Amino acid sequence: MMDISGMAHVIVTAGDFEKTAAFYRKLLPAMGLTIVSDTDEIFYCVGARTAFGVRKPHDEFRGERANQWRVGLHHYCFRAKTRETVDEMHELVKAIGGTIVHAPEEGPWAPGYYSVLFEDPDGMRGEVNFVPGKGVLAEGAEFRPR
User: Fold this and answer.
1) Rounded to the nearest 5 degrees, what angle is found at the Cα of 82, between the Cα atoms of 94 and 112?
2) CA neighbor of 127 nearest in space, from 33, 32, 31, 45
3) What is the full per-residue pLDDT of the chain (146 aa) written as tens digits?
4) Is 59 in a helix, a strand, or coil?
5) Local structure of residue 78 (DSSP, 8 states)
6) Which sign does the torsion angle of CA 20, 22, 92, 86 carry?
7) Cα 7 from chain centroid (whole Å)
8) What region, left, alpha or beta, does residue 72 occupy, with left being phi > 0 and alpha being psi -120 to 50 degrees?
9) CA–CA separation, 142 vs 4, rounded Å?
10) 3-state DSSP call for residue 69?
11) Which of 19, 21, 127, 130 could join 80 via S-S bond, C-beta 3.0 to 4.6 A?
């Protein structure tokens, strides 16, 4: 069996690169990620055993918005170490102009699952969750998608 230690990075392509990169310039450093590239083509941060980037689109796709039900990325989710971090993220996303899809709430995905779901300026959905213990890997737990 291979030994994988986690997700290395996620890169999304923004329809409005300037507006979306501005959103992530506030969001990601507040989460402890370090900016390693900030150009007119890509914004990229690394930290917390992962990385997240935003790329400029090709000209013919400029202005398009994300749709989580089309082929491609449905949403991304960062794991918080506490429920309080989920609450703090909710306040931060509101303050920097994100759209809250749902405020912090418990969900059916795993025992103790607590999350906030939001959209960036391009409509890309992001989530921050907290799951205590082993989550769906705990004995007797089950994954319960909606």
Assistant:
1) 100
2) 31
3) 898 888 899 999 999 999 999 999 999 999 999 999 999 999 999 998 899 999 999 999 999 999 988 989 999 999 999 999 999 999 999 999 999 999 999 998 888 999 999 999 999 999 999 999 888 888 777 777 76
4) helix
5) E
6) positive
7) 12
8) left
9) 23
10) coil
11) 130
Torsions phi, psi of 60, nearest 5? -70, -15
* Nearest alpha carbon to residue 129 among 75, 49, 68: 75
What contacts 121, CB < 8 A, 6 or more positions away?
14, 16, 19, 20, 22, 23, 97, 98
CB 50 within 8 Å of CB 9 = yes
Question: Cα(114)–Cα(23) distance, rounded to whole angstroms?
Answer: 23
Could you tell me the two tokens for 56?
């400029």
Query: Which pLDDT does position 47 carry in this prediction?
Result: 95
AA letter at 6: G
